[in-house]
Design brief:
The longest helix has about 35 residues, at about 280-310. By secondary structure, this protein is mainly alpha-helical. About 70% of the residues lie in helices and about 0% in strands. A two-stranded antiparallel ribbon has the order 1-2. The model is unreliable at about 380-385 (pLDDT under 50). Helix 5 packs antiparallel against helix 6. The protein has one domain (about 5-375). A hairpin with a 3-residue loop joins strand 1 (about 100-105) and strand 2. It is a multi-pass membrane protein.
């Protein structure tokens, strides 16, 4: 087959749709944002860089990414550790987080965004190798594999929590949960663990809402650190602090009603509207219909990724695609959910639409892996390699 027949044009179309939505939303955001910058132009540059990266990645088969998964993972851990140890001149604390390197003449780079993809690669590699070496179904093998998945996820997770970056940490947990579910570990092993985690989380949340002093006494969690949870449940009581962005976001989305106010007709000022709260711009200017277009675009995108995963003829490719789907789906659900009070505010971007060089490039690398799996899926016609 030639290039035109092997290239995934459906995936390319949805990516172009995201580019269009992002540019339109950012053009509106930069008109009233607190920054005097052309975010749309910078986003186009990052899309251009990402396009070149995807073009290069396309010609390497998934096995190549399997082989380099360990070097990428180890390099990512080293960079995360270096970020913690770096002086403030290189890695300043911004809004209470030490998550970025500042590179003169280049801008900022956030290593944790790329570490998400590296972690998905290494987990896919480890799960594949585990099943190749352990053909027998045994509870011991399940526990060993579970330990590998949890251990490899916790290493970057612990480093990221030192920044601290709770939103990104939750993404890693979502990736880990998804990989455990599809790893082949039997449900009689998974269910008790998931049940314990859910029960523990529920008890902690209930305690935080009713007896926060106990968390302070036994876990060292101060009441002010739970502000985002309180603001999520009762934003009006925290309208001048943690609840400010949530209230403004909901007002913006609600004021758009069915058809929106029109491009550039925003009336409500919202900090960080070009990054974490880009969905509020769509809701205000293009209303319910515009919001539905964004949701439909993500549905088509995730459906296409699912199709690629289902027809992949190599286990590593399947695990890789599921990990990417978990990462992107969690980002979408969390970002839009926090804008409408469905979930607490965690400060993670909307994939392919929010402004952010590191985030966008990492997501484009992720879709580059999907293009590679799709492009090379016909190499082995009668089974796995």
């Amino acid at each position: 087959m030639n290039f035109e027949e092997r290239f995934d044009w459906k995936l390319f179309f949805t990516l172009c749709l995201f580019l269009t939505i992002s540019c339109v939303a950012l053009y509106s955001a930069q008109q009233s944002a607190q920054y005097n910058e052309n975010f749309m132009f910078k986003q186009l540059i990052w899309y251009g860089v990402g396009g070149v990266v995807i073009a290069i990645m396309l010609y390497f088969e998934p096995d190549f990414y399997k082989k380099i998964s360990w070097p990428l993972y180890i390099a990512g851990l080293i960079v995360l550790l270096a970020l913690i140890l770096a002086p403030a001149t290189v890695a300043p604390v911004i809004k209470g987080q030490k998550s970025w390197f500042i590179l003169p003449g280049f801008g900022s780079i956030q290593p944790s965004e790329f570490m998400k993809v590296f972690t998905i690669l290494i987990l896919s590699n480890v799960i594949t190798n585990h099943h190749e070496k352990n053909k027998l179904i045994h509870i011991r093998n399940d526990l060993v594999l579970l330990g590998k998945i949890v251990g490899l996820t916790l290493l970057p997770l612990v480093l990221i929590m030192q920044q601290p970056d709770l939103g990104t940490a939750l993404v890693f947990l979502a990736i880990m949960a998804g990989m455990i579910v599809i790893s082949g570990i039997r449900w009689r092993v998974i269910l008790p663990i998931f049940g314990t985690v859910i029960l523990t989380g529920s008890v902690l949340i209930w305690t935080a809402l009713n007896f926060p002093q106990l968390l302070d006494q036994y876990l060292g969690v101060k009441q002010y650190q739970l502000g985002r949870i309180y603001a999520w449940l009762s934003p009006q009581q925290y309208s001048s602090s943690e609840g400010f962005q949530l209230i403004r976001a909901m007002r913006a989305i609600g004021s758009g009603q069915m058809y929106g106010k029109g491009m550039g007709e925003r009336e409500l000022y919202l900090p960080e509207s070009h990054t974490d709260f880009i969905f509020s711009i769509v809701g205000e200017e293009y209303g319910f219909l515009g919001s539905c277009v964004v949701l439909l675009a993500f549905f088509l995108f995730i459906y296409r990724l699912t199709t690629i995963a289902s027809r992949a003829n190599h286990k590593f490719s399947t695990y890789l695609m599921v990990g990417l789907i978990c990462m992107i789906t969690f980002h979408v659900f969390q970002n839009i959910g926090m804008s409408i009070q469905l979930l607490p505010i965690t400060g993670i971007p909307l994939p392919y639409i929010s402004y952010g060089g590191s985030s966008l490039l990492a997501f484009l690398i992720a879709v580059g892996l999907a293009f590679s799996v799709s492009y090379h899926h016909r190499t082995f016609m009668f089974g796995e390699e």
